[in-house]
């Protein structure tokens, strides 16, 4: 025991001394180790398996042979199919290596294609660059013992398989998918789900032997029977209170779930898309989602037409569709086979019962005596009995004088109600204008306008004429919109004055008095000199001169003016106030007019009843127009906000 402990301590001390010596070595003394590292890095990771199994001289010889090869096999969008595997084996009978060039989707993931190629053919990839691959048949390819062993394995697999046509190919596919899934650790629940799905697909039909995805291998829909006897579109019934269509969140959830679900069918021929309908219904009975993969490399495939035909035949909801997959949801109105059969039987029995009741009703109608209805005779128009019955039911009719009096009373009441309605509208409008005034005062609290300075710089007539002519011919200008004057306007004026002496401001949709007031305010806030106010094709042009003793201020934006947002709020409140004032003016005019008409109606005589009624109808139409205007006024905020989007102010 002591000897073993001493030897272990000696080994550890030697390792520590070696590590210390390595750290103390100079770079040229560590040349051998660096060469070894370079050799390790230079090893091709794409063909690591071939480098481990094949001796290096033999590997170099095979790579040189492949480089001199001119002929190469092109692999299209279908990928590694059984036909390609057979062609590779035929080529291996004459040559050791086969050169392949992949195109289409297979070239996007060459690592996966590399694994599939080695698993399906049994060869080794000795060189790979880009989408080109050199496949070696192996050193023991022509040995008789290997051939006999492979035949023995295939015979055992064929005896144990359920489908005779699947026995050799399904073994290869399962080996491939087992190797692909070896890196992925599945939980027990996921393994159980995959095994159940595999059993379900095994019952539906033969598998797609050229499948290059993960397990389970989907059913080849092109090999299913073209006509299924007794097939009908599934019976569907939407439960009470359930939506027929899916919500956006539900559709998003189903699409994300479908990404992880393996496909159930592989479909290539467009005219054979109806063959998977029977199996489609069986899959929907077990799973809420049915996924169909579209075969690659098959000509004349249209996923749009396939999806439309399957939707008509199965009645499901299309979740997603692209060049690779078609995903269907069974729908909210889907019923399991057991429930649908019970409902169909109940519906059939209900229809039979209704037919029996209708036949019994018809038989009873023929037995009724037609003379039984003669005892209750209807009243004849124009007879005394009919007159007495009508009088007792509806009473006496009013005469013409009473009718005229009733019409006049109704007209007066209608006029009085219109007056009351206008008074209520006027009170509401006045309360609104009071709120608008308060809101405007709240916005204007942040504004403190400057007054005109007493020592204004004066311009001679010649200077004013020259500045006006230069200003009108200037191309750059500032556009003053509905916000009018705010801190950004003064800032832009100072930025213009930084490079030129004049600034031209265009004002649209304003009267001359309003433009003049704006020009004076600009002169006071900016500290410049107003040159002129002219009317142009674009609007009114205000030209302001910066002054002979102009100096750029430290802060371009004055603190005493409103911001851009506050200026927009001020514009909205001003527009609301003006509209309410106009509305109140119209209401007051209509109210005075109706009051005068009401006084005339009260003092009118009985002969003017018809004229009075016509005048009332005209007043009612005016009141209706006022109601329409009131509706427009109530929605004024909406129209004001719409107008802000078309604002072209600075």
UniProtKB/TrEMBL annotation:
It comes from the Eukaryota. InterPro entries: CRS1/CFM2/CFM3, RNA-binding_CRM, YhbY-like_sf. GO terms for molecular function: mRNA binding. GO terms for cellular component: chloroplast; ribonucleoprotein complex. Its main location: plastid. Keywords: Chloroplast, Coiled coil, mRNA processing, mRNA splicing, Plastid, Repeat, Ribonucleoprotein, RNA-binding, Transit peptide. GO terms for biological process: Group II intron splicing; mRNA processing. Residues 608-629 are annotated as: Disordered. Residues 419-446, 577-607 form a coiled coil. Residues 52-148, 244-341, 457-557 form the CRM domain. It holds the Pfam family CRS1_YhbY. It is found in: Plastid, Chloroplast. This is CRM-domain containing factor CFM3, chloroplastic/mitochondrial.
């Amino acid at each position: 025991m002591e000897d073993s402990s001493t030897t272990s301590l000696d080994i550890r001390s030697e390792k520590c001394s070696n590590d210390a010596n390595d750290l103390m070595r100079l770079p040229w003394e560590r040349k051998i180790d660096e060469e070894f590292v370079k050799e390790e890095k230079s090893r091709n990771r794409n063909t690591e398996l071939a480098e481990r199994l094949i001796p290096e001289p033999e590997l170099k010889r095979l790579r040189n042979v492949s480089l001199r090869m001119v002929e190469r096999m092109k692999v299209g969008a279908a990928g590694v199919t059984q036909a390609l595997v057979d062609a590779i084996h035929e080529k291996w009978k004459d040559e050791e290596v086969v050169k392949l060039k992949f195109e289409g989707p297979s070239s996007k993931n060459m690592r996966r294609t590399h694994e599939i190629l080695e698993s399906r053919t049994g060869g080794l990839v000795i060189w790979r660059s880009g989408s080109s691959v050199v496949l070696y048949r192996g050193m023991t390819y022509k040995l008789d013992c290997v051939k006999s062993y492979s035949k023995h394995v295939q015979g055992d697999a064929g005896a144990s398989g359920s489908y005779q046509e699947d026995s050799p190919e399904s073994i290869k596919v399962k080996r491939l998918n087992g190797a692909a899934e070896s890196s992925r650790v599945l939980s027990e629940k996921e393994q159980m789900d995959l095994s159940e799905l595999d059993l379900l697909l095994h019952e539906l039909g033969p598998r797609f032997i050229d499948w290059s995805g993960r397990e389970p291998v989907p059913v080849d829909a092109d090999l299913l029977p073209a006509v299924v006897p007794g097939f009908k579109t599934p019976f569907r019934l939407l439960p009470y209170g359930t939506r027929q269509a899916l919500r956006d969140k539900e559709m998003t959830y189903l699409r994300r779930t479908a990404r992880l679900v393996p496909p159930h069918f592989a479909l290539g021929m467009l005219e054979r898309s109806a063959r998977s309908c029977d199996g489609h219904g069986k899959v929907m009975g077990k799973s809420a989602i049915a996924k169909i993969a579209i075969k690659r490399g098959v000509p004349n495939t249209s996923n749009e037409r396939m999806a439309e035909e399957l939707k008509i035949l199965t009645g499901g909801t299309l979740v997603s569709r692209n060049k690779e997959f078609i995903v269907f949801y069974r729908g909210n109105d889907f019923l399991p086979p057991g429930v649908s059969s019970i409902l169909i039987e109940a519906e059939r029995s209900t229809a039979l019962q209704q037919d029996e009741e209708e036949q019994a009703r018809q038989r009873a109608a023929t037995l009724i005596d037609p003379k039984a209805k003669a005892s209750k005779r209807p009243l004849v128009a124009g007879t005394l009995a009919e007159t007495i019955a009508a009088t007792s039911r509806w009473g006496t009719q009013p005469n013409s004088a009473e009718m005229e009096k009733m019409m006049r009373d109704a007209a007066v009441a209608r006029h009085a109600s219109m007056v009351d309605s206008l008074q209520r509208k006027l009170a509401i409008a006045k309360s609104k204008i009071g709120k608008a005034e308060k809101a405007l005062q709240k916005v204007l609290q942040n504004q403190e306008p400057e007054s005109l300075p007493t020592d204004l710089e004066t311009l001679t007539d010649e200077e004013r004429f020259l500045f006006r002519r230069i200003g009108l011919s200037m191309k750059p200008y500032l556009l003053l919109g509905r916000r009018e004057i705010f801190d950004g306007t003064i800032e832009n004026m100072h930025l213009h004055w930084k490079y030129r002496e004049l600034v031209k401001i265009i004002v649209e949709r304003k009267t001359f008095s309003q433009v003049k007031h704006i020009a004076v305010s600009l002169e006071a806030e900016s500290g410049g000199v107003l040159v002129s106010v002219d009317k142009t094709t674009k609007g009114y042009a205000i030209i302001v001169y910066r002054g002979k003793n102009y100096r750029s201020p430290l802060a371009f934006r004055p603190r005493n003016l409103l911001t851009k947002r506050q200026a927009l709020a001020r514009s909205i409140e001003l527009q609301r106030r003006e509209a309410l004032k106009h509305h109140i003016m119209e209401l007051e005019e209509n109210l005075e007019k109706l009051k005068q008409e009401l006084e005339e109606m009260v003092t009118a005589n009985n002969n003017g009843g018809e004229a009075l009624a016509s005048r009332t109808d005209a007043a009612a139409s005016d009141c209706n127009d006022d109601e329409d205007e009131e509706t427009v006024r109530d929605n004024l905020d909406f129209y004001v906000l719409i107008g802000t989007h078309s604002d072209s102010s600075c």
